[in-house]
Design goal:
Elements lengths: L2 E11 L2 E10 L4 E8 L8 E7 L2 H5 L7 H15 L2 E6 L2 H4 L2 H12 L4 H7 L12 H8 L3 E5 L3 H9 L3 E6 L10 H11 L11
Parallel strand pairs: 4-5, 4-6, 6-7
Antiparallel strand pairs: 1-2, 2-3, 3-5
């Protein structure tokens, strides 16, 4: 694995004080960050979120997805318990990159769903590689998680690399009229698990 730790610093946020750990992937030249709060050592499972970068949702307040609200909800939940970790992975557009994501959005404007748009561009429905988490987990000596996710693929990926996921915690928030079809496609074609009623309403 080509991922190496660079440096850590404090990151004060509205949700509390995190520590931000920077990692660099020499192979892809992408930079990833991990946010931790509180004492992450010991055997007690950490409340955790594996979050793939979404510039449009995380920073530009797009209503086309639920990514921004999911990130903020994870930071809020970790802030409430005072202990946890967020892996922020630079895998924009489920791994296809920002410009290709804009192309996919254009196809969605013409009626394609999120999976169909990716496939029309010649990509798989989900190109993300969660194996990049392993060196980050090892560096931080994290072995046991309570994972905030609706995506069973993330749970399996972590379990396959020897991480004990003791619980999958539903993480629903951010549903709106602009992303209703997107969320239906995530459930119907990508296997995401949603309850009928959003938790955070």
């Amino acid at each position: 694995m080509t991922i190496r730790f660079i440096e850590s610093c404090k990151l004060p946020t509205p949700f509390g004080m995190f520590v931000m750990h920077g990692f660099e992937d020499d192979k892809t030249e992408k930079e990833h960050v991990v946010l931790t709060m509180g004492d992450i050592s010991g055997c007690e499972p950490l409340l955790a979120r594996v979050h793939s970068e979404c510039l449009t949702g995380d920073a530009l307040f797009s209503l086309r997805c639920d990514c921004g609200p999911q990130l903020q909800a994870a930071m809020h939940k970790i802030g409430l318990v005072g202990r946890g970790v967020i892996f922020y992975l630079r895998q924009e557009g489920r791994g296809i990159g920002l410009v290709n994501k804009i192309r996919a959005y254009s196809l969605q404007d013409c009626g394609a769903d999120t999976v169909e748009a990716n496939e029309q561009l010649g990509f798989g429905a989900d190109m993300r590689d969660y194996s990049i988490l392993k060196p980050m987990l090892e560096h931080l000596n994290i072995k046991s998680l309570k994972l905030l996710t609706n995506n069973p693929r993330k749970v399996k990926a972590l379990q396959d690399m020897g991480i004990n996921v003791v619980e999958r915690m539903p993480h629903q928030t951010g549903r709106n009229p602009h992303n209703a079809k997107y969320l239906e496609t995530k459930a119907g074609k990508l296997g995401h698990l949603f309850n009928e009623i959003d938790e955070d309403k």
